[in-house]
UniProtKB/TrEMBL annotation:
This is protein-serine/threonine phosphatase. GO terms for molecular function: ATP binding; kinase activity; metal ion binding; protein serine/threonine phosphatase activity. Primarily acts as an independent SigF regulator that is sensitive to the osmosensory signal, mediating the cross talk of PknD with the SigF regulon. Possesses both phosphatase and kinase activities. The kinase domain functions as a classic anti-sigma factor-like kinase to phosphorylate the anti-anti-sigma factor domain at the canonical regulatory site, and the phosphatase domain antagonizes this activity. Keywords: ATP-binding, Hydrolase, Kinase, Magnesium, Manganese, Metal-binding, Nucleotide-binding, Phosphoprotein, Protein phosphatase, Transferase.
Length: 732
């Protein structure tokens, strides 16, 4: 006996899910907060009082169909569901255009959390709407808390509010958070925070009012018959459920409040440590009965708001104090220097009191020259800032007396060592506060007419030079120990010339190492900024901003270094540009001829380790040379020439390297001078010999080379002519 096919599984007569849901008065909806649209099927549209057909509505149109009190409670329910990973369930009243309740529905939705491109969190609700058997036709929209578990939504709201207020770091942020709070079931549309200044009431901030509406309340005496003034006087909250209550209790100031058209008011004291510091007003357009639960929520919010305002006020006072302290210790760049352009920046550490030990200074000298000083006292605390201020004054005094750079740093080291050792220890201040401190420093004496720089360095990073064509070199200089370690320390002086169109950068290690960098990776990051800003920045000020922003700006997290330590340090940077017709600090070159690149370096007998610095100088000078083999050859010959001077003579080696000409057709000339009269000669070293091949290398690698006798010594030189890329490389 053959069975008939089941109707429910028949392909031609299948019961659709939509029909089943419509039969039990259940609709489907999708609420996309990111796009601001609501998608309804036919049954959901009917339940919302719309034609029974699928529709996509703007968020505002769909929201107008819900009772405003019920709608305000949805935020807390959704946040709680997201936190617990559960469904968001709510009972909602559907309204018509006249404010009457059409029906009551139950919504069960799954909130999906989406992260937008700008980092903002949006929600997408997908769920059902089902009519429940509690119709209330013809009733008005009176306030009745019917949505879900009101107490659970209140707890979720208070948790969110407490977290948001705790994260606010300024009074303005606290007021913004207070204005954005959506309270469960009775969301206020007007807020005001009142403060106390002597015997007067002031408005700290408000929301939901127009500009100028706060004028009558800004300077109100505390004995005025006004709710906020009475709350401040007696420290007790005042609840006014209706306009009649307001008019009866405060007839004098009722005309001031009547024009805002509110239906209920709550005035609560802002109390911190038993002291009333102000009052908070929450005003409502719809009537609020202020039940015990509602008063509990308002009281809790007022307490959190008072604590947040107190913390913000203390933080702002500390920031104002430390900023003023730091600015008072930082000098102005002073009058303009003929032929020179200066720019400087200082950024305090990202934590603590926003003070530190970094500083810079520009000092006019009796000789008509000027001095640039940049330094860093150990530490990021008040003591470091205090020592920095004293050390800066001492360095300025020594420089103003006319001492040479090495003498200025020697005296400063003795001063700092004596200053730290003379301080009396106080156990209450802790061992770290009384521990000896040292400071790094770079002192540059500059002649603005000739561009001659005399540099003395005390454990500080070397200066960097950006040439007129954009090539950037770290300029090695002789140096000594940081200030304050050994009272009597010698600081050798390095001389070189800042050519027209060149820019010198002095900085503290915070600019190099902030973001987890070491000296090498941090310098590579700064070099990229300096080279990219060679011809497209508007001024030296713009270049200074770019350097600080790359290290300390919003995008600096893209250039974090390889180290795990991410502690930030103070940042100080000074830029000095020697002006020219084709200035390299931002003005485009006015003619096609490229300026010469030139670097000078002295390698002393006692510092053979600086041979590596000489090789690096030549390689950086030829960073865009077309033939890498020529760069390797130049580096090898420089190393051989400088080593021969240190091995076969008793004097120092002076290296001068210069590249001139257009890209692809340049000429490199390198000279190494010494004080010996002995000329190099060809040797024939054996297979196992460790020396004697210098002249052979010059013959094989250099295009031309030679030896020029001088009055006291000689100069060995070689030249390389840049070879263009092979034809097959150019075609790629």
């Amino acid at each position: 006996m053959n069975r008939q096919p089941d109707r429910m599984t028949c392909k031609d007569d299948r019961v659709r899910t939509e029909d089943v849901l419509a039969a039990i008065a259940t609709g489907l909806w999708r609420w996309d907060n990111a796009s601001g649209t609501v998608t309804l099927d036919g049954e959901a549209a009917r339940l919302l009082g719309l034609p029974a057909e699928p529709v996509v509505l703007p968020e505002a149109a769909a929201r107008s169909r819900f009772h405003p009190v019920d709608w305000n409670e949805i935020n807390g329910i959704v946040n709680l569901a997201v936190a617990e990973g559960t469904l968001a369930e709510a009972r909602l009243r559907i309204m018509d255009e006249d404010g009457r309740v059409l029906r009551t529905v139950r919504s069960r939705s799954k909130p999906l959390q989406n992260l937008t491109a700008d980092g903002r969190v949006d929600y997408e609700l997908i769920g059902t709407i089902q009519e429940i058997a509690e119709p209330q036709p013809g009733t008005t929209a009176a306030h009745t808390p019917i949505t879900g578990d009101w107490r659970r939504s209140r707890e979720a709201f208070l948790l969110d509010a407490g977290r948001a207020l705790a994260e606010a770091r300024s009074t303005a942020e606290v007021l913004r958070v207070a204005a954005s709070l959506s309270m469960p079931g009775f969301n206020p549309d007007g807020l005001a925070v009142f403060g106390v200044a002597g015997d007067r009431l002031s408005v700290i901030g408000h929301h939901g009012h127009g500009p100028g509406d706060e004028s009558p309340f800004t300077d109100m005496p505390l004995d005025t018959d006004y709710p906020a003034a009475e709350v401040v006087r007696n420290g007790r909250a005042i609840y006014l459920p209706s306009p009649e209550d307001y008019r009866r209790r405060f007839p004098v100031t009722w005309p001031l409040a009547r024009r805002f058209g509110r239906a209920s008011w709550a005035f609560l004291p802002l109390i911190v440590a038993g002291r009333t510091m102000g009052a908070w007003m929450a005003a409502f357009k719809h009537p609020v009965s202020f039940s015990p639960d509602e008063r509990s929520v308002l009281t809790t919010v007022a307490r959190m708001l008072a604590q947040a305002l107190q913390r913000a006020g203390v933080a702002e006072s500390e920031r104002e104090l430390t900023t003023g302290l730091q600015r008072s210790m930082m000098p102005q760049l002073g009058p303009e220097i003929p032929g020179m352009t200066l720019a400087a920046r200082y950024v305090p550490t990202g934590g603590g009191l926003q003070v530190g030990g970094d500083w810079y200074d520009v000092i006019p000298l009796p000789s008509g020259r000027f001095a640039l000083v940049i330094g860093d006292v150990q530490g990021h605390d008040v003591r470091a800032a205090g020592l920095m201020g004293q050390l800066r004054i001492a360095v300025r005094a020594y420089a103003s007396e006319g001492h040479r750079p090495d003498a200025v740093l020697s005296r400063a080291s003795r001063f700092l060592s004596g200053l730290c050792s003379s301080q009396e220890s106080d156990p209450a201040e802790g061992p770290d506060y009384q521990s000896p401190r040292f400071a790094t420093c770079l002192y540059v004496e500059c002649d603005p007419e000739t561009g001659l720089l005399e540099v003395a360095r005390a454990g500080h990073p070397d200066p960097a030079i950006r040439m007129a064509d954009g090539t950037v070199l770290m300029r090695p200089t002789a140096g000594g120990l940081p200030l304050g370690i050994i009272p009597d320390t010698d600081y050798p002086t390095t001389r070189f010339t800042l050519e027209p169109g060149e820019t010198m950068m002095l900085c503290t290690d915070g600019l190099i190492e902030t973001g987890g960098h070491d000296l090498d990776t941090g310098w590579a990051r700064l070099r990229a900024i300096l080279e990219s800003g060679a011809h497209d920045t508007e001024s030296l000020e713009k270049l200074a901003d770019l350097l600080v922003q790359a290290v300390h700006g919003p995008s600096s997290h893209h250039t974090t270094g390889p180290l795990a330590d991410r502690r930030e340090d103070d940042i100080a940077v000074v830029l000095l540009c020697r002006e020219s017709a084709d200035c390299g600090c931002g003005t485009p070159l006015s003619h096609p001829a490229r300026p010469a690149r030139r670097t000078v370096l002295t390698v002393a007998q006692a510092e053979p380790e600086r041979i590596a610095g000489a090789r690096r100088q030549v390689r950086e000078l030829l960073h865009d040379w077309t033939d890498p083999e020529q760069v390797d050859a130049a580096e090898l010959m420089v190393s051989e020439m400088v080593t021969n001077v240190l091995v076969h003579t008793d004097g120092d080696a002076l290296l001068v390297a210069e590249a001139v000409g257009e890209l692809g057709a340049r000429r490199l000339r390198v000279e190494v001078a010494d004080a010996s009269d002995e000329l190099p000669h060809m040797r024939h070293p054996g297979e196992m010999a460790s020396s004697g091949r210098g002249v052979l290398l010059m013959e094989m690698l250099a295009d031309t080379w030679g030896v020029d006798p001088r009055g006291a010594g000689k100069s060995i030189w070689f030249e390389l002519r840049e070879r263009s890329k092979p034809a097959e490389d150019q075609a790629r």
